[in-house]
Structures are given as structure tokens and as C-alpha cells.
Design a protein that fits this description.
- Residues 129-172 form a coiled coil.
- This is Restin-like protein.
- Keywords: Coiled coil.
- Helices cover 85% and strands 0% of the residues.
- The chain is mainly α and 384 residues long.
- It has 2 domains: 7-139 and 263-382; 145-257.
- α2 packs antiparallel against α3 (34-81) and α3 (34-81) runs antiparallel to α4 (85-194).
């Protein structure tokens, strides 16, 4: 290991801030999806706790390393130099307790990251299923609306055609009525007044032609029957049209309540990025675990030589190397701690409001701000 710091310490991103921003964007995009909002909120809070615990554990690693370097190893060296085997053994026992403690804590952290990554994966799956179901429902509703709109158009055309037929029948009835009235006026009034004799003659002529008058009456009766049928059809069409228009209005209202899934693709992308971040952190803690096991082995490598006076120099040299490596480990943990540190105390304050309550303008404003902050972090990471 020599003077090299473990490379995995240097590979950590400023993940706490970046992950909080990804959660913020996801939360905004889940407006009108209350079930998904709740699940995401739970994941975000757990991630926040997990990063806070990571920071605390790294501080514990730093403190343990400092104690090993500044206190325990000097005491161990002094005890070895003075042939105080009991004191040496006690010092190593103490070191073993400290190392075992942080090893166990790191193991727990590895398990927590694995479990939490499954939770985020489950949330991602929920988003995917919700998107598929909502898109399917939206498509089905759109088809139903289109079908109802076609029915409305057909009924309106049928109604218009029926009204035109009614108008034509009424015109025929009016013409028929005019012809009948004209004959009566001509036959019984006009000529009778002008020439009473002729009027009497014509009246007798008309009265001898009942067939023609009956035909006209029959025609009028038939026209009235047709008009009655058309009126009945008009009424039925109007009833059906009102019913379909009501269904159409209700369907459009329902469609308006179906959330738009346009942003769910972004949510899936952000959650995948969060999963990748959690995976990297889990690998980080696994690397820490391997490194600690290596330091533990190095610390106790020549424990059996303590009682051998002639091999005392080997023990002391080993202690110096272990002390150097523990110091490097502590410094690296301090560097990594900054990556886990929640620099912005308000990073998860966005969980306190309901994204559905925002106006479109306010939603867009917040989204753009968070997106810009995320871009700044990405630019800083890529900067040489």
C-alpha cells in the first residue's frame, strides 16, 4: 500500500447534493401521482438518513484512525521497547475491539445500502407500471371519446336531415291547404257574390265533384301523418343526442383527471441515476470493509513476535507501517466524508409541499432552478 491512498476514496462524487437534486426533480415530475409521491418521499427520506449515517460512520473511522495513530500505536511501541508484554497484549486487544467495532458497522452499512437500493428499484418499478397503466387508460379513454364524438356527429346530421324533411312536409301541407282554401273561396264566395246565379251553378258543380275534394283531404291527412312520424323521430334523436352528449362531457371530464405521463420518463431516468449512485456507495463501503480487514491483518501481523526480544525490531517496524497506513486511512475517510456531507440543510425541504399545488408557471420555475443546479454540479465534477 505504501504512500498510496485507496483509489475508491477519490472516486466518490458530491453525491449527497446531487442525489437530493435528482429526488427533487423526480418529486416535481410526479405531480398528480399521489401514490408515487408517497413512495418516492419515503425513499428520499431514507436516502437522506443513509447519507447522514455514512457521514457519521466515516467520522467514526477518522476518530478511530486518529486514536490508533496518536495513542494506541505509540503506547504499543513503548510497551514493546520496554518488553512489557502484558501491556502490549492489552494494547493490541484494545485495537482489536476498535477495529471489530468499525468493521461491524461498515458491514451493517453495506447491508443498508443493498436494502435501500432494492427499495429505490421497487419505486422505479412502481413508476414504470403506473406509466404503462395510465398511458393505457388514457389511450382507451381517447378512443371512447372519439367514438362518442362520431356518434354525436352522426346524430346531429340525422337530426338536421329530419328537420329538413319536416320543413318540406310543412311546405307541402301549406300548399295543399292553400289549394283547398282557394277552391272553396273561388267556388262559394267570389262568384256567388258577383253573380248569384252563376255561383249557385258552380256550387252545384263543386258539390257534384266530391272525389276531387276527398283526394285533397286524403293528401293532407297523409302529410300530417308523415309530419307526426318525423316529429316523433326528431324527439327520439334529440333524446339520444342529449344522452350521448352527456356521456361525452363526463368522459372528457374524466380524461381531464387522468395525469399526463410525459414527465414519468424523466422520473425513471433520475431514479436509475440514484440507483447507480447508491450502488457506487455500496461498492465504496465494501472497499472500505476490505481495506479495514487488510489493516486489521497488518496491525496483528507480528503479534506472536512480541515476546521474542531478538525480533523486537521487526515488530516495531511493522507497527510503524501499520501506523502510517492507519493515518492514510483516516485522511482518506475525512476526504470521503465531505462527499457524503449534506452541505445544504434545506436539500430535502421540497418534500414539505405538494407539487400538484403549484401553478404551471411556478412548477416550471422550480424545475428549471433545480435542473440548473444539477448541471452546475455536473460541470464541477467534469472540470479538470
Amino acid at each position: 500500500m505504501g504512500e498510496n491512498h485507496p483509489s475508491f476514496f477519490q472516486e466518490l462524487l458530491p453525491s449527497a447534493d446531487r442525489t437530493a437534486l435528482l429526488y427533487n426533480l423526480s418529486y416535481l415530475c410526479l405531480a398528480k401521482f399521489p401514490k408515487l409521491e408517497r413512495v418516492l418521499k419515503e425513499c428520499a427520506v431514507e436516502t437522506q438518513y443513509l447519507f447522514g449515517s455514512s457521514e457519521a460512520l466515516l467520522q467514526k473511522c477518522v476518530d478511530t484512525s486518529n486514536q490508533m495513530v496518536s495513542s494506541l500505536f505509540p503506547q504499543l511501541k513503548l510497551a514493546v521497547e520496554n518488553n512489557e508484554n502484558i501491556q502490549s497484549t492489552m494494547s493490541l486487544q484494545k485495537a482489536g475491539e476498535w477495529i471489530t467495532d468499525i468493521v461491524n458497522r461498515v458491514k451493517e452499512m453495506v447491508d443498508r445500502y443493498e436494502k435501500h437500493n432494492h427499495s429505490v428499484a421497487s419505486c422505479t418499478s412502481d413508476v414504470y407500471l403506473e406509466k404503462a397503466e395510465t398511458d393505457k387508460k388514457n389511450a382507451q379513454t381517447t378512443k371512447e371519446i372519439e367514438a362518442l364524438e362520431k356518434v354525436v356527429r352522426d346524430l346531429q346530421m340525422e337530426l338536421m336531415k329530419t328537420l329538413e324533411e319536416i320543413g318540406q312536409i310543412e311546405a307541402k301541407i301549406n300548399r295543399c291547404h292553400g289549394r283547398f282554401a282557394c277552391r272553396r273561396m273561388f267556388g262559394f264566395s267570389f262568384l256567388a257574390v258577383v253573380v248569384s246565379f252563376v255561383g249557385s251553378v258552380l256550387k252545384s258543380i263543386f258539390e257534384t265533384r266530391p272525389a276531387r275534394n276527398q283526394a285533397l283531404a286524403n293528401e293532407k291527412a297523409q302529410l300530417f301523418a308523415q309530419k307526426s312520424n318525423l316529429k316523433s323521430r326528431e324527439h327520439n334523436i334529440q333524446v339520444r343526442l342529449n344522452d350521448v352528449q352527456l356521456k361525452l362531457a363526463n368522459m372528457k371530464t374524466e380524461k381531464g383527471s387522468i395525469p399526463d405521463t410525459v414527465h414519468l420518463n424523466d422520473v425513471l431516468k433520475y431514479l436509475y441515476e440514484i440507483q447507480e449512485t447508491l450502488l457506487k456507495h455500496n461498492l465504496f463501503w465494501k472497499s472500505v470493509l476490505v481495506f479495514l480487514e487488510s489493516l486489521k491483518s497488518e496491525t496483528f501481523a507480528n503479534e506472536h513476535l512480541i515476546e521474542e526480544n531478538e525480533l523486537k525490531e521487526i515488530v516495531l517496524t511493522n507497527i510503524d507501517l501499520a501506523q502510517e497506513h492507519w493515518k492514510a486511512f483516516g485522511e482518506s475517510c475525512l476526504t470521503a466524508k465531505r462527499a457524503f456531507s449534506l452541505q445544504n440543510k434545506d436539500a430535502y425541504k421540497f418534500l414539505e409541499f405538494n407539487p400538484s399545488s403549484l401553478s404551471p408557471e411556478e412548477w416550471k420555475r422550480r424545475y428549471d432552478i433545480v435542473k440548473a443546479d444539477l448541471t452546475k454540479i455536473g460541470t464541477a465534477i467534469c472540470a479538470p
